[in-house]
Design a protein that fits this description.
The chain is α/β, with parallel strands linked by helices and 868 residues long. It contains 23 helices and 24 strands. It starts with a helix and ends with a helix.
Length: 868
């Protein structure tokens, strides 16, 4: 716009100058033309006057001649009139030629001649009047006075005078025509310049109009973009101009601050908004501070939502109002405070449970020893058994506390929650009684979840019992299992939740429900709404701790009078389910091995020493890791290290175990603890090589755990020992110590390849009992060595997840060595993960039944016999 204005001014100045010049020239030449025209008229007047003098003289002369001839007085009138006009004509003529000296001189010469001629004519008239008519008639008429000569001279002089005037007339007419042409040219030039200026102005106006239109369109698009941007801002925005009129806004301003939609128009007065706020008792649009700086945010609560309202003054005297929905942030902060509170309570309860477990262990050890020694007094024995029951109840209480504190040792495994719920539905139904109807809903295509089945069953029973107590008149309990995905939005509202895929277990009842303040405290330990003596308040806290320890999420949905739903979300796993079978309890086994007991609590250590001595073991003891290392360094024979997990001192338990295994390669290790730290538990799970017995433990539990630790250590030692048929430099050979040498193996042998020693041990034992000759290997490298050393191997059963060379590479190398080798793949992976198997190879999914191993070997050998 400024550019166009500048251009118009720059072009207008020279155009105005040219128009002014053209106008001046037109006026100038127009004046010249008028003057030339006046001079032409002047010349014509002079000529007419000169000719008039001759005409008057001729008329005077004619009148005198007629009078002389006729003596009639009628002829004197023309003479008198002509004689009267001639002097006036000569006076005017002399005045008209005053600017021309030559003509003035000529008039001056002519005047006496004319006067002389008039006088001569007058004398002739007078003579007639005097009676001298005959004398006059005797002479020619023209001879009157000077006669013809005088008139000829006058005529010649007048002719000369008129000639000069005619020449001037010609010059002045030419000058007039030139002036007219210049005047025309100036007018045409001025008109052209004006027209050009008009055209330029029109073009500039059109261009300016086009630019204005483009600018308006651009401003319109910018307004649309600005409005779209405002409408897409998550916050409510409104601008009030200095007059208190609504000048800009987005829809969220009205929806969030709950102003009526009819006010959503430009020009809406501020007073109407303030009237609405006054009616509902808020002041979001009022200033909250002093000065022109941004105002302090005003906290506002509307229909359960939390807002922060900001008021920003503008330079023009208006102000901008913005409303920010902070509901999620406020809830997240409240939840974070709740999580911190639960963490603090968990740390406290965990420490209390640890110390209490040590006390229970002292009591339990001494009661077990007293009962084992035999008591004749039945009343005393009954009291001791009652005390033992009390320690068991105390142990359950501490386990619940440890579950809430997320310090209980879990052994999570891939679990199908649908199968688990189906298996325990009948037990839940019996526990709740006939007045409560139990329903189960299991969705199709259910994923597996990571869970400790035993702990999860306890959690379900706890929730079911709580639901029973909420339905004293009976009702319905629904157990529902389904896949679930918790997204970013849900995780933003629950700070402890990680977005991802979960398996959801919901326990719903139709009971009395809970108020919001009760829901907020439901997971806190010892919080209960039941009457005294009817509940410990640890059921839900145990569920909370268990789920959190597994990396899951638990949420309560409840309303008074509408029942309660507790939803448990456990992380999804892609591993196949491992169906665990409970082993039958075996009798207490005694032993003669030497056990080193490491425990910092003297009373607990004494109870453990007495128990182990009563079981037949030789016992050494140490009050810490440093003392235990001293015992090991002394050379004393130690078969088992039985150590507490949490002990004071610079040497940690893991370092103690590492050094013990380095000094005693075959030593067995058994851990015990009132609760567990990260020494042997990571992410809520026991390390793969760990055996743990939780305090307080029974005598029979200690006996069984100890024998298990010893047997595992012996199995590892046997596995690591070199085979008689392998050179000494191949320690840890693939050939088991129990397997026959190459020359002793018959026509057929099975190669079993598995890196997990416990899995390999159980499978090999089964196959050997089934009558097969078995060669075992813990890696692909050991398997290839066995194939080269034992030509009798005709079948290979191999896992795919092997250290070093993978299972598929092992199969390819084995088939090069033995093209006709029977192959069975043992894996928990899906078909897509494994890919295509070699021709003739079969697949056996983990977990598999041991009987299936025997059938698979027979099928592979039958195929080989058919090919032969």
């Amino acid at each position: 716009m400024r550019f166009v204005t500048r251009m118009v001014l720059l072009l207008l100045l020279p155009v105005l100058a040219l128009i002014g010049l053209a106008s001046y020239l037109a006026i100038y030449f127009s004046g010249n033309s008028e003057r030339a025209y006046d001079r032409v008229i002047h010349t014509y007047t002079v000529i007419d006057l000169a000719n008039g003098v001759i005409a008057d003289l001729d008329e005077a002369e004619s009148g005198v001649r007629g009078f002389v001839i006729t003596q009639s007085a009628d002829y004197l009138a023309p003479f008198d009139e002509a004689a009267a006009r001639v002097p006036a004509r000569l006076e005017r003529l002399q005045a008209l030629v005053a600017d021309n000296p030559d003509q003035v001189e000529l008039v001056a010469t002519l005047r006496p001649l004319v006067d002389e001629r008039i006088a001569a004519l007058a004398a002739a008239r007078d003579r007639v009047l005097a009676g001298d008519r005959e004398a006059l008639l005797a002479a020619p008429v023209q001879g009157i006075g000077p006669g013809k000569r005088s008139m000829d001279r006058i005529r010649a002089m007048v002719a000369n005078f008129v000639g000069v005037e005619r020449q001037l007339l010609a010059e002045r007419r030419s000058e007039n025509r030139s002036s007219d042409r210049f005047t025309l040219y100036a007018a045409l030039g001025g008109s052209f310049i004006g027209l050009a200026a008009l055209l330029v102005g029109v073009v500039l106006l059109l261009a300016n109009n086009w630019r204005l239109q483009r600018t308006e369109e651009k401003l319109g698009r910018q307004r649309e973009i600005l409005q779209i941007a405002l409408d897409n801002i998550r916050h409510g925005i409104a601008y009030f101009d200095p007059r208190g009129r609504l000048a800009a806004f987005n829809r969220r301003f009205f929806s969030k601050l709950q102003f009526p939609a009819e006010l959503a128009m430009l020009g809406a007065p501020l007073e109407r908004f303030r009237a609405i706020e006054q009616a509902r008792g808020t002041a979001a649009l009022e200033p909250s501070g002093n000065g022109a700086a941004a105002q302090l945010p005003l906290s506002l609560r509307l229909d359960g939502s939390e807002f922060e309202v900001y008021r920003m003054p503008t330079a023009d005297g208006g102000f901008v109002i913005s409303s920010v929905d902070v509901t999620q942030r406020v809830r997240a902060e409240a939840m974070f405070r709740q999580v911190q509170k639960m963490e603090s309570i968990g740390q406290l309860t965990g420490g209390v449970a640890h110390d209490f477990n040590n006390l229970l262990q002292i009591v339990r050890s001494n009661i077990d020893l007293a009962l084992a020694s035999g008591i004749d007094d039945e009343r005393l024995a009954t009291r001791l058994r009652a005390a033992l029951d009390g320690t068991e109840r105390g142990a359950r209480l501490t386990r619940q506390l440890l579950a809430f504190a997320r310090r209980q040792p879990l052994e999570p495994a891939p679990t199908n929650l649908g199968r688990l719920v189906a298996d325990m539905t009948e037990m839940v139904r019996r526990s709740l009684g006939e007045s409560i109807q139990v329903e189960t809903v299991v969705a199709g295509g259910l994923w597996n979840a990571m869970a400790d089945p035993g702990q999860l069953e306890n959690a379900i029973l706890n929730l079911a019992i709580n639901a029973r107590d909420a339905m004293p008149e009976g009702g319905r309990l629904t157990l529902e299992v389904a896949n679930a995905s918790l997204d970013e939005a849900y995780a933003a509202e629950h700070v402890e939740v990680r977005p991802g895929q979960y398996v959801m277990l919901a326990v719903s009842d139709t009971g009395a429900g809970m108020a919001p303040e009760v829901v907020a405290q439901a997971f806190e330990p010892f919080f209960t709404t039941k009457a005294d003596g009817q509940g410990t308040g640890l059921g839900l806290s145990q569920v909370y701790g268990y789920v959190k320890q597994l990396g899951g999420h638990v949420k309560i949905y409840s309303e008074p009078g509408h029942g309660t739903t507790v939803k448990i979300y456990l992380p999804r796993t892609r591993q196949p389910e491992e169906v665990l079978q409970l082993a039958a309890l075996t009798p207490i086994e005694f032993g003669r091995e030497t056990v080193l007991v490491v425990e910092d609590d003297a009373a607990v250590r004494a109870g453990a020493v007495d128990m182990l001595g009563d079981l037949g073991y030789r016992v050494l003891q140490a009050d810490g890791a440093d003392a235990a290392l001293a015992v090991l360094s002394s050379g004393a024979p130690v078969d088992v290290l039985f150590t507490d997990v949490v002990m004071p001192g610079p040497v940690k338990v893991r370092e103690l175990v590492r050094q013990a295994q380095a000094r005693r390669p075959g030593i067995a290790v058994l851990y015990t603890s009132g609760y567990t730290e990260n020494a042997i538990i990571h992410d809520g799970r026991l390390d793969a090589d760990v055996l743990l017995i939780s305090k307080p433990y029974r005598r029979d539990e200690l006996a069984r755990k100890l024998r298990t630790a010893i047997e595992r250590a012996r199995a590892r030692t046997a596995q690591a020992a070199p085979s008689p048929s392998v050179p000494p430099d191949t320690v840890g050979s693939t050939i088991a110590a129990t397997a026959p040498a190459a020359t002793e193996i018959g026509a057929q042998a099975v190669l079993f390849v598995e890196d997990d020693a416990l899995v390999r041990m159980s499978a090999v034992d089964f196959l050997q009992h089934a009558g097969f000759t078995v060669v075992e290997a813990g890696s692909a490298e050991q398997a290839l060595q066995a194939l080269e050393a034992q030509p009798a191997i005709d079948v290979m059963l191999t896992d795919l997840g092997l250290p070093g060379i993978g299972g598929m590479e092992l199969i390819a190398a084995a088939l090069k060595l033995r093209p006709g080798l029977g192959i069975a793949v043992l894996s928990g992976r899906s078909g897509e993960e494994i890919g295509a198997l070699p021709a003739g190879a079969v697949r056996l999914d983990k977990p598999y039944e041991l009987e299936r191993l025997r059938v698979t070997v027979l099928e592979l050998r039958e195929r080989q016999s058919k090919r032969e």
